[in-house]
């Protein structure tokens, strides 16, 4: 089954760099550049004990698609029969593994067995000399039961050892910089900040494992685990992969990945196999009483649980370890696919039912995200693209999905009611026209009723009541807010809008009328006028919400526009009063695409999408339409977010291009590899005059 990973060394200038290829919020599909290939994340490093190889590394590579593994350099150093061949032929030969080899340093052994007899520099030098790809410095293990003073000591000793370890690593050995701090959030954040900023002679740390969590996971304290990940993420540089040291239970992957973890490692596949336990994404299953396997698997195909129970210990362990590795890899593939399809939080919701402790952690996260008053929640929400084609499956947990919260935040912060009604009169003191009937697309199901209601009373603002909250009718085709899959009783039991939800839209509840369906025909001329007003209002609402322009300035900009339409009558392109194509509403997701002319207008008004300042070297390429690459950006506004437009300017503030961001402002300042902005249009010099 070999998947044929390329093991060639990366370009020297890329060594240790990490780039994001795809993302769903802070969950990311990444690539880490090493001397034995490009490591694709999120991924699990199976632990290989060089003395007891339950599954041979070569078999992992050939048959299980394992691109990288982790072994223990201290164990190799300690055993003469391993140390000499490792020093002579290198660790790849010792293990017979062509992929990426990561090593730990002996810290865990010191936690389990007490003091170890190797020095801080010595163990790094050894990892360097045996040709490891990513080694680990000798950190100080912080246990969850330790006092604050002891944990402070573990954190500061680890930080103290960091620069000497980085210097000793030399130019080729990448290093893990573990984060300690026990259960104290502030110590975790402090450790992450300091370890993240240590710079060695050649480079800083490449990966940051979160250490000291094995005893926390052994006690199923998943709420503590979630809090630790959040505390670390708050201060860790965004361009460094995060590894959960010793975490390998598939049940924990979705939540950890959704919080921004990139790597896992574990001996669980082998340890659990030894006492007859199966890992599954829903928890652990003992084989004792099984009549059938809970999951289909290549490894267990054709063998019954009772046959496995009758096997010799070694044979049974070997088989179950292979099953455990297979299911672990399969769950990671599922998580990666969920990230690619924007469904990682839906998977977190599903998996949260695997154990009460995991559910407790999820409910904590759900509440925090909904409150959205801390840095990490807002980072998760802001980095979740709010415009996505496709539908949203409603569950009792779906209200906390970060991309929906992002969309709702944009509505709350940027949407305002139209300034004038269809008769051109001010909308001051307008009524709310609440749409409780019909399903999306509402433009088909209720538009004629809305037109009728507005013909009677023009001073009304149509608002749709959905299971995900209130949606102004002028944003009715914004996916996924508009594509909600929910059963009928969910729709029929939505409570009346609270004062708070109306206040969020800048409305008050003093006058709400419910949209009624009617057979009455509205006068044709009036119908056309209201229809056009609704369309116009939709464009200006989207300019507010997606481009950050106010209704007032959009009203001036859109004065006298003309449009062309699709075969179904929907607006495809919008032209300014002087006939320039300025934007196109997107029919598949309800977003809008700016054109160069539109970007130039917004730039000249001095408002609209956030800006970033491009380095001089990159300007000719980006003017030519090439994407903006990390490392060529000199400054950013602080509200750049994935999936939303931005303007790209030079150091004088002149427009160079416009595009759609793939990252947040915080990430733009940190990453040095990969695409930051997908350019949608470069402004040629003669264009901008
Ligand atoms: N393996 C599991 N936990 C740890 C840790 O805290 N530090 C190191 N170096 N290895 C580990």
Q: Your description of this structure?
A:
Helix content is 39%, strand content 19%. By secondary structure, it is an alpha/beta fold. The chain folds into 3 domains: 12-356, Alpha-Beta Barrel (TIM Barrel); 415-592, no CATH class; 609-689, Archaeosine Trna-guanine Transglycosylase, Chain: A, domain 4 (Roll). The N and C termini lie far apart (58 Å). Bound molecules: guanine (GUN).
Sheet/helix structural class: alpha/beta
CATH H level, superfamily name of the largest domain: Queuine tRNA-ribosyltransferase-like
- The overall strand count is 29
Can you give the mean pLDDT? 95
Helicity, as a percent range = 25-40%
The radius of gyration computed from the alpha-carbon positions, rounded to a whole number of angstroms, is 28 Å
Main pleated sheet:
6 strands, parallel
Number of domains: 3
Strand fraction band? Answer: 15-25%
Strand arrangement in the largest pleated sheet = 6-5-4-11-10-9
* Low-confidence sequence ranges: none
Shape: globular
Number of helices: 28
Query: What small ligands are held by the chains?
Result: guanine
CATH class of the largest domain: Alpha Beta
Here the CATH topology of the largest domain equals: TIM Barrel
Distance between the termini: 58 Å
Assigned CATH architecture of the largest domain: Alpha-Beta Barrel
Indicate the topology.
Blueprint: E1 18-24, E2 27-34, E3 37-41, E4 43-48, H1 57-64, E5 68-72, H2 73-78, H3 80-89, H4 91-95, E6 100-104, H5 107-113, H6 120-129, E7 134-136, H7 148-169, E8 174-176, H8 185-197, E9 208-210, H9 214-218, H10 222-235, E10 242-244, H11 253-258, E11 263-266, H12 268-274, E12 277-280, E13 283-286, H13 305-309, H14 313-340, H15 344-351, H16 356-371, H17 375-382, E14 392-393, H18 402-414, E15 431-435, H19 442-445, H20 447-456, E16 460-466, E17 469-472, E18 484-485, H21 488-492, H22 499-504, E19 512-514, H23 524-547, H24 551-557, E20 562-565, E21 571-575, E22 581-585, E23 592-594, H25 596-605, E24 611-614, H26 619-623, E25 628-629, E26 633-636, E27 645-649, E28 655-661, H27 665-668, E29 675-682, H28 685-688
Parallel strand pairs: 4-5, 4-11, 5-6, 7-8, 9-10, 10-11, 14-18, 15-16, 15-19, 24-27
Antiparallel strand pairs: 1-2, 2-3, 12-13, 16-17, 20-21, 21-22, 22-23, 24-26, 25-29, 27-28, 28-29
Helix pairs in contact: 6-7, 7-8, 8-10, 10-16, 12-14, 14-15, 16-17, 20-23
The structure holds guanine.
Guanine binds next to helix 5.
């Amino acid at each position: 089954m070999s998947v044929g990973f390329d093991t060639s060394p990366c370009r020297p200038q890329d060594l240790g760099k990490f780039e994001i290829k795809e993302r769903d919020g802070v969950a990311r599909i990444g690539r880490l550049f090493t001397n034995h290939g490009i490591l694709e994340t999120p991924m699990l490093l199976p632990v290989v004990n060089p003395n007891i190889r339950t599954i041979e590394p070569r078999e992992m590579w050939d048959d299980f698609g394992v691109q990288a593994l982790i072994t223990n350099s201290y164990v190799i150093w300690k055993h003469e029969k391993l140390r000499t061949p490792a020093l002579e032929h290198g660790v790849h030969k010792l293990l017979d593994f062509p992929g990426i080899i990561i090593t730990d340093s002996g810290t865990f052994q010191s936690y389990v067995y007490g003091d170890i007899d190797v020095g801080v520099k010595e163990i790094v030098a050894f990892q360097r000399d045996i040709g490891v790809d990513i080694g680990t410095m000798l950190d100080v293990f912080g246990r969850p039961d330790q006092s604050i003073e002891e944990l402070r000591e573990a954190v500061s000793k680890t930080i103290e050892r960091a620069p000497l370890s980085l210097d000793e690593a030399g130019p080729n050995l990448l290093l893990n910089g573990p984060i300690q701090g026990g259960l104290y959030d502030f110590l975790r954040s402090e450790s992450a900040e300091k370890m993240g900023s240590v710079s060695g002679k050649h480079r800083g740390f490449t990966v940051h494992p979160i250490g000291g969590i094995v005893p926390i996971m052994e006690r199923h304290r998943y709420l503590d685990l979630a809090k630790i990940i959040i505390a670390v993420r708050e201060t860790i540089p965004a361009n460094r992969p995060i590894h959960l040291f010793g975490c390998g239970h598939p049940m924990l992957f979705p939540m950890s990945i959704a919080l921004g973890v990139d790597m896992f490692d574990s001996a669980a596949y082998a340890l659990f196999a030894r006492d007859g336990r199966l890992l599954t994404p829903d928890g652990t299953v003992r084989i004792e009483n099984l009549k059938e396997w809970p999951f289909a698997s290549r490894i267990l195909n054709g063998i019954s649980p009772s046959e496995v129970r009758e096997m010799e210990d070694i044979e049974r362990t070997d088989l179950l370890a292979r099953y455990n590795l297979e299911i672990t890899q399969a769950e990671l593939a599922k998580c990666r696919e969920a990230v690619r399809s924007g469904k990682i939080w839906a998977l977190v919701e599903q998996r949260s039912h695997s154990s009460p402790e995991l559910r407790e952690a999820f409910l904590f996260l759900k509440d925090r995200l909904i409150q959205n008053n801390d840095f990490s929640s807002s980072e998760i929400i802001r980095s979740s693209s709010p415009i996505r084609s496709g539908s949203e499956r409603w569950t009792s947990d779906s209200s906390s999905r970060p991309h929906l919260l992002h969309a709702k935040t944009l509505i709350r912060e940027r949407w305002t009611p139209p300034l004038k009604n269809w008769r051109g009169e001010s909308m001051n003191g307008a009524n709310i026209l609440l749409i409780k009937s019909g399903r999306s697309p509402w433009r088909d199901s209720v538009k004629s009723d809305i037109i009728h209601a507005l013909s009677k009373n023009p001073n009304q603002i149509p608002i749709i009541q959905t299971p995900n909250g209130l949606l102004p009718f002028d944003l009715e085709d914004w996916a996924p807010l508009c594509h909600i899959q929910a059963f009928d009783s969910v729709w029929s039991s939505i409570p009346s809008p609270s004062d708070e939800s109306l206040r969020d839209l800048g409305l008050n509840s003093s006058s709400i009328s419910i949209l009624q369906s009617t057979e009455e025909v509205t006068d044709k001329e009036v119908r056309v006028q209201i229809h056009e007003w609704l369309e116009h209002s939709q464009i200006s609402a989207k300019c507010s919400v997606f481009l950050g322009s106010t209704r007032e300035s959009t009203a001036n900009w859109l004065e006298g526009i003309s449009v062309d339409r699709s075969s179904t009558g929907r607006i495809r392109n919008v032209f300014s009063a002087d006939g320039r194509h300025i934007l196109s509403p997107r029919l598949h997701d309800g977003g809008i695409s700016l054109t160069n002319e539109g970007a130039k207008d917004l730039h000249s008004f001095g408002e609209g999408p956030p800006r970033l300042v491009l380095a001089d070297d990159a300007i000719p390429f980006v003017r030519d339409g090439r994407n903006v690459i990390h490392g060529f950006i000199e400054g950013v506004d602080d509200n750049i977010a994935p999936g939303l437009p931005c303007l790209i300017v030079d150091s004088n503030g002149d427009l160079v291009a416009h595009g759609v961001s793939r990252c947040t402002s915080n990430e733009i300042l940190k990453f040095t590899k990969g695409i930051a902005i997908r350019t949608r249009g470069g402004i040629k010099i003669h264009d901008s005059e």
